[in-house]
């Protein structure tokens, strides 16, 4: 993963503009506004604990002067809180204390000067390969003298030459109560941002929703799982593993290709188990003991007696359970003999129309097949081949062996795969590729026998079991299906072979999500996982809240959830939040309302009913932490114990 | 946990007994069976079945009995070929030998199994004996597969009555009888006497008045491996808002296809010259090495017991002070609460509900705790794109028992499912649903795609079960990015609006190739997994000490895909395909000139391309001990091409390459 350095420039003179924020600010602790992103990003770094993810923090309009230009009076009031350090939980607590509203003279150390210090601080190792970000957080309310200076001009060049990303988080930019000076500064900031190649402005009022609903995406470095030829008409002898050196094999038609992962399910941040006792926290580990059971019944007078005899791990032989009666010790020779000696290769077996290859056969996660870097003819050939598949609506069937047989590890794998042609959109261009997925072998079929829902065309032994035709109900169900049409808002017709999503072309971790929300249904359905974002934002929230307290004490609050976790919004999924993007959009709720009548009539056929009363009570207990906020301003928590909103939020 | 365990069927323990009636006609050689007789067809099909079952259902028990067959063991002519026990290599060998001995004329089946004296009083005894065999066994589900081509199982009323009673005994014991009536050569099989003795049971309800023709014996036997594998059960909620979760279907999800792997490796230990399975147990310790003991309390879950003993789940934060964010079960539950609110605004349906009589029995459907699936809407099947697959789709159908094992279920689940299925088929729609299929799984978006439509499971010669495929759709996090080299290489991209980006002539040539090897359908049954079958074959030979010929080891004889590649290789050697491929090569060779231009425009790339070493260069360098003179990127590229382990340092890399080449040389000499 790329090394990264992020420099936060924080304006300590920032204040909220407008009445609402002011009153909140007065009631809360002494905090400068607009730091949501700062805390979110710092906490994520602390959770990931990467050794090459550095931060610097520069406070401007500070009462402390601490920077390498401090000899120069111009740079007074600029406090470099830290420079290129890996943040820790402990240091973040200290930074929090240092980032308090300033008591300094407002004219000291303006933001532009602090930016210059930030850029200068990046210079010493500018030649090293780093992703560099400057995050500027300000309301732009104080006097800035350094716009339009030659020094700033020079710094723009440095930012652009070194691919430094600049994010500006503006506090209440464009607010109706802004002073003239603020308005002027805002205009100047925008001009400056435009001069940066990678400059981006985000309004602080949007940032908390961006972090909550469209959290930044991580890039996982693509690891190639196969590099070699895709052959058609090649000699089958090459499928066999041989010890000799490998060169390129002749095949009448062949492309050089690479295989990369295309889809892998993302999981929650891993939690470990800790033993907490008397404020001492220790990681737990599980120790495995091996034993065999020996029947001592014959020696015993008390009937059946099975004794567990512990054994030494070294004496264990690896074995295979062929059947319940046949155990086999897999000694080296047998282990080696029992692996099919296959050689890494990819061979075309044929082609099939896309409608004739059931998705029921897709038994693995998808991979991309892309043309290898190399001669143009390879690229041209591969692209034309993919286009021929698209024009004939075909999928290519492949025999795929990713790696040579490995006798020492005892691994070999042959797969039959389908390669679906696609166009991968990169900005306003695309490249051809194949989305490859494994198809089942004979042993993978786990078909069962199921009731028929419709009259069956032809029977071998069984009579059809289906329900009476009920035309009224059928019509109702059809209405129901049609009224819940997700594509009812007509969008432009899409090229069905085009893959277009922002994750595809991510070259680095997103600092702040790039929010371009198109209204077509495909985009509305391809979003950040609501469960992952909820989990992450709750963890971040807990850590942020703990910063001003003792972590252990904070966590052991018996009313932790109601005191610290409950928000005005529901913690349950519902139709308005489950596919929520940055902007709230009630399209699913509206769709549901449209289907009210047929749904209502269908409920006459079906009744929900309690099957077994009282069963699973134990399980329900932990499932029952429901916090709902309702339109009537009521929050319910826990099914059995509904709490009043006033109790929770007062 | 209890509920989930209901649906876990890791250990499918089926006991099947094959009972076959022997008579003269079962030994008649038939044209449709390539001159073989029906008994041979049955035994060889069972042989095939066992080969599959040892891999996918190794805990199945199989017994084979012949009746009306001369036997020294008893007076009622029941001959045991194999008792009802778990599969084993010896049992498989015995049955396989019966088949091969017959083929190779060492011992013909009619010579081994002589037709006994037909006595109608024997059949009740035979069936009673078979019940005994089932009773002695430990199998969860029990099945009798009964082959006969004799439509006169009894003559006297006495025998009829006792058969009727015994068949009832089978039903009482939950032993399923699957009769397979074989066609006779001369006339049709008259099923009426069987209908009579089966009359008080449901075994023949689904039976049509036709018999199995000999060619279909194999198919009927192979289908015995079809066992429903339940993955999950939950409610599919179709309504929201005012109607809360009142409209829904209790559903079950089953496995259709999933990847079979060689996972039966075990730890073994030699004890008294015998191999024994090694078992494990584990203890939890803290860093100081102290064991943490958990209390035993049936009323508490494992998580609660751990929590009581001071064990909490947590995340370590980067901190010198070692700060752990540790949370209790309730706090985690809050973070991972995936319940769905079907009525967030707490609205009530204001219209009068005329049949609201049994309020007390209707559950509150406002909140659906996991597992559940919630309908979001429908889309036309043309909108479905399968580019990002995440897992094998599960098969969904209505729950016959209307969600019996959940806290609440929906009545008429199968009927509602049938309506939904019918409408989706007619309107060509698939549903988009959100939810978790297990209590602890992360929620996903899914496409609920009806079977027997194009792209789902439509196939020309086979109808899939009726229902839906549950196809997991990706979140943005699940999608992987392209390699940077592809994203940044601007010279090798096409503008989005250019639909005909590639040379027409070339595309048309490839299209000819595509048409030349078009498959009508893909049938997984035609392709046994080469690696798994080879493994089992070698182990079976080893267990039974059967000699192994060199030919048996050739990939050619073990890989079901090999003949396909071989056939394509042959077709390319001659005729039109050869010409097409030559045209393509010629056409593409024209582009060689372009590479000079490309390299000129992209000096970094040029250097990289020029750098790569030929095999000869490396060999020369290796022989003269001058590998060090090559650059790391050159060596790495060679190592990658030969799949040699890389190293972090140049010295290690060179060492690895040397070791690799030395080994090759040694092997060759």
How is the topology of this model organized?
The complex is a heterodimer of chains A (650) and B (669).
Chain A: E1 4-11, H1 19-27, H2 36-48, E2 53-60, E3 79-85, H3 89-98, H4 111-122, E4 131-138, H5 150-161, E5 165-170, H6 180-195, E6 199-203, H7 204-213, E7 226-232, E8 253-261, E9 272-277, E10 280-295, E11 306-310, E12 317-323, E13 326-329, H8 332-337, E14 345-353, E15 367-371, H9 376-391, E16 394-401, E17 415-426, E18 429-439, H10 471-483, E19 498-499, H11 521-525, H12 530-546, H13 551-555, H14 560-565, H15 587-594, H16 596-602, E20 608-610, H17 617-623, E21 627-629, E22 635-637, H18 645-649
Parallel strand pairs in A: 1-2, 1-4, 4-5, 5-6, 7-14, 17-19
Antiparallel strand pairs in A: 2-3, 7-8, 8-15, 9-10, 10-11, 12-13, 14-16, 15-18, 16-17, 17-18, 21-22
Chain B: H1 2-7, E1 14-21, H2 38-56, E2 61-67, E3 78-86, H3 89-103, H4 109-112, H5 122-136, E4 141-148, H6 157-172, E5 175-181, H7 192-197, H8 217-222, E6 230-237, E7 248-255, E8 265-271, E9 274-277, E10 279-286, E11 291-292, H9 302-308, E12 311-316, E13 324-327, H10 329-335, E14 340-341, E15 367-368, E16 372-380, E17 394-398, E18 408-410, H11 413-427, E19 429-436, E20 444-450, E21 468-473, H12 484-488, E22 494-495, H13 504-516, E23 518-519, H14 530-544, H15 562-572, H16 575-589, H17 592-601, H18 603-611, H19 615-623, H20 632-641, H21 650-668
Parallel strand pairs in B: 1-2, 1-4, 4-5, 6-16
Antiparallel strand pairs in B: 2-3, 6-7, 7-17, 8-9, 10-11, 12-13, 14-15, 16-19, 17-21, 19-20, 20-21
């Amino acid at each position: 993963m790329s090394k990264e350095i992020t420099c936060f420039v924080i304006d300590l003179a920032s204040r909220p503009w407008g009445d609402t924020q002011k009153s909140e600010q007065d009631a809360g602790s002494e905090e400068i506004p607009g730091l949501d992103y700062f805390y979110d990003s710092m906490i994520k770094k602390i959770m990931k604990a990467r050794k090459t993810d550095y931060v610097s923090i520069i406070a401007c309009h500070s009462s402390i002067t601490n920077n390498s230009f401090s000899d120069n009076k111009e740079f007074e009031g600029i406090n470099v809180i830290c420079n290129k350090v890996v943040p820790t939980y402990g240091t973040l607590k200290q930074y929090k204390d240092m980032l308090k509203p300033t008591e300094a003279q407002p004219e000291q150390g303006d933001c532009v000067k602090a930016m210059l210090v930030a850029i200068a601080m990046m210079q010493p190792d500018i030649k090293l390969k780093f992703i560099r970000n400057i995050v500027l957080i300000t309301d732009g309310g104080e006097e800035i003298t350094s716009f339009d200076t030659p020094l700033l001009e020079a710094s723009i060049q440095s930012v652009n030459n070194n691919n430094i990303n600049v994010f500006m988080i503006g506090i209440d930019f464009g607010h109706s109560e802004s002073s003239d000076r603020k308005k002027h500064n805002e205009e100047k900031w925008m001009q400056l941002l435009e001069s940066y190649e990678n400059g981006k402005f985000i309004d602080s009022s949007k940032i908390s929703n961006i972090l909550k609903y469209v959290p930044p995406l991580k890039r996982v470095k693509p690891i190639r799982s196969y590099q070699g030829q895709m052959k058609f008409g090649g000699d089958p002898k090459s499928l066999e593993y041989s010890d000799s050196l490998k060169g390129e094999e002749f095949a009448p038609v062949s492309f050089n290709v690479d295989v990369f992962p295309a889809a892998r399910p993302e999981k929650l941040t891993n939690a470990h188990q800790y033993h907490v006792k008397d404020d001492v926290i220790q990681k737990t580990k599980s120790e495995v003991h091996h034993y065999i059971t020996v029947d001592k019944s014959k020696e015993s007078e008390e009937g059946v007696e099975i004794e567990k005899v512990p054994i030494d791990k070294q004496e264990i032989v690896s074995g295979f359970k062929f059947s319940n009666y046949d155990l086999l010790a897999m000694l080296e020779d047998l282990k080696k003999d029992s692996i099919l000696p296959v050689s890494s290769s990819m061979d075309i077996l044929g082609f099939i129309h896309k409608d004739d290859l059931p998705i029921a056969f897709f038994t693995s996660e998808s991979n991309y097949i892309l043309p290898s870097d190399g001669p143009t003819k390879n690229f041209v050939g591969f692209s034309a081949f993919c286009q021929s598949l698209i024009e004939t609506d075909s999928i290519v069937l492949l025999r795929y062996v990713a790696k040579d047989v490995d006798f020492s590890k005892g691994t070999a794998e042959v797969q039959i795969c389908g390669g679906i042609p696609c166009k991968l959109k990169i900005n306003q261009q695309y490249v051809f590729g194949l989305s490859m997925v494994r198809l089942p072998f004979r042993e993978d079929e786990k078909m069962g026998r199921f009731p028929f829902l419709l009259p069956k065309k032809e029977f071998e032994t069984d009579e059809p079991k289906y329900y009476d035709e009920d035309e009224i109900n059928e019509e109702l169900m059809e209405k129901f299906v049609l009224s819940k049409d997700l594509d009812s808002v007509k969008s432009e017709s899409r090229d069905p072979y085009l893959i277009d999503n922002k994750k595809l072309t991510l070259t680095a971790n997103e600092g702040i999500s790039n929010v371009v929300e198109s209204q077509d249904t495909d985009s509305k359905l391809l979003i950040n996982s609501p469960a992952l974002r909820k989990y992450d934002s709750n963890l971040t929230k807990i850590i942020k809240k703990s910063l001003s307290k003792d972590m252990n004490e904070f966590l052991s609050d018996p009313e932790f959830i109601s005191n610290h976790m409950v928000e005005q919004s529901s913690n349950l999924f519902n139709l308005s939040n489950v596919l929520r993007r940055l902007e709230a959009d009630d399209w699913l709720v509206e769709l549901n309302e449209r289907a009210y009548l047929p749904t209502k009539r269908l409920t006459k056929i079906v009744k929900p009913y309690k099957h077994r009363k009282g069963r699973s009570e134990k399980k329900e207990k932990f499932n029952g932490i429901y916090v709902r906020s309702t339109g009537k301003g009521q929050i319910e928590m826990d099914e059995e114990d509904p709490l009043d909103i006033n109790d929770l939020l007062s | 946990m209890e509920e989930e365990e209901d649906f876990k069927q890791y250990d499918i323990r089926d006991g099947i007994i094959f009972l076959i009636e022997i008579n003269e006609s079962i030994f008649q050689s038939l044209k449709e069976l390539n001159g073989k007789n029906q008994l041979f067809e049955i035994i060889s099909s069972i042989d095939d079945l066992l080969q599959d079952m040892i891999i996918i259902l190794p805990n199945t028990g199989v017994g084979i009995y012949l009746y009306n067959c001369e036997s020294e063991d008893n007076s009622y002519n029941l001959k045991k070929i194999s008792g009802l026990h778990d599969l084993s290599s010896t049992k498989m060998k015995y049955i396989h030998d019966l088949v091969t001995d017959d083929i190779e004329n060492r011992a013909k089946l009619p010579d081994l199994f002589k037709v006994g004296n037909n006595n109608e009083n024997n059949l009740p005894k035979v069936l009673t004996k078979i019940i005994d065999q089932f009773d002695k066994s430990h199998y969860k589900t029990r099945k009798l597969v009964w082959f006969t081509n004799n439509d006169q199982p009894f003559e006297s009323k006495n025998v009829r009555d006792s058969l009727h009673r015994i068949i009832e005994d089978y039903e009482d014991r939950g032993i399923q009888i699957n009769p397979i009536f074989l066609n006779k050569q001369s006339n049709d099989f008259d099923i009426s006497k069987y209908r009579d003795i089966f009359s008080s049971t449901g075994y023949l309800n689904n039976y049509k008045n036709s018999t199995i023709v000999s060619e279909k014996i194999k198919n009927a036997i192979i289908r015995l491996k079809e066992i429903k594998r339940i993955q999950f059960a939950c409610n599919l909620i179709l309504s929201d808002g005012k109607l809360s979760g009142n409209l829904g279907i209790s559903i079950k999800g089953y496995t259709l296809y999933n990847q079979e792997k060689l996972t039966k490796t075990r730890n073994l230990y030699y004890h008294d010259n015998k191999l024994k399975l090694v078992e494990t147990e584990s203890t939890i310790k803290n860093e100081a090495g102290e064991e943490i003991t958990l209390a035993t309390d049936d009323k508490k879950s494992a998580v609660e017991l751990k929590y009581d003993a001071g064990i909490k789940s947590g995340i370590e934060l980067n901190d010198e002070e070692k700060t752990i964010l540790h949370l209790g079960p309730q706090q985690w539950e809050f973070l991972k609460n995936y319940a769905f609110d079907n009525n967030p605004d707490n609205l009530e349906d204001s219209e009068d509900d005329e049949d609201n009589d049994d309020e007390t029995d209707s559950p509150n459907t406002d909140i659906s705790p996991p597992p559940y699936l919630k309908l979001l809407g429908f889309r036309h099947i043309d909108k479905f794109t399968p580019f990002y697959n995440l897992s094998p789709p599960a098969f969904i159908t209505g729950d016959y028992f209307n969600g019996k094992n959940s806290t609440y279920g929906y009545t008429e689940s199968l009927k509602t499912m049938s309506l939904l299925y019918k409408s989706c088929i007619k309107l060509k729609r698939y549903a988009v649903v959100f939810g978790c299929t297990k209590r602890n799984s992360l929620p996903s978006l899914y496409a609920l795609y009806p079977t027997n439509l194009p792209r789902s499971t439509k196939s020309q010669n086979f109808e899939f079960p009726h229902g839906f495929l549950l196809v997991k759709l990706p979140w943005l996090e699940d999608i992987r990015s392209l390699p940077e080299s592809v994203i940044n290489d601007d010279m090798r991209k096409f503008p989005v609006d250019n639909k005909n980006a590639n040379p027409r002539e070339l595309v048309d040539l490839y299209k000819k190739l595509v048409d030349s090897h078009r498959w009508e359908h893909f049938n997984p049954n035609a392709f046994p997994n080469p690696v798994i079958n080879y493994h089992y074959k070698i182990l079976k030979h080893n267990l039974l000490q059967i000699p192994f010929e060199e030919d048996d080891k050739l990939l050619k004889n073990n890989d079901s895909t090999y003949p396909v590649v071989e056939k394509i290789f042959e077709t390319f050697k001659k005729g039109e395909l050869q010409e097409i491929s030559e045209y393509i090569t010629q056409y593409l060779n024209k582009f060689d000139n372009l590479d000079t231009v490309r390299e000129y425009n992209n000096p970094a790339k040029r250097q990289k391309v020029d750098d790569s070493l030929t095999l000869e260069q490396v060999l020369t360098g290796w022989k003269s001990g001058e590998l060090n003179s090559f650059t790391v990127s050159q060596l790495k590229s060679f190592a990658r091409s030969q799949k040699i382990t890389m190293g972090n340092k140049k010295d290690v890399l060179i060492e690895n390459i040397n070791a690799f080449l030395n080994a090759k040389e040694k092997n060759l000499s």
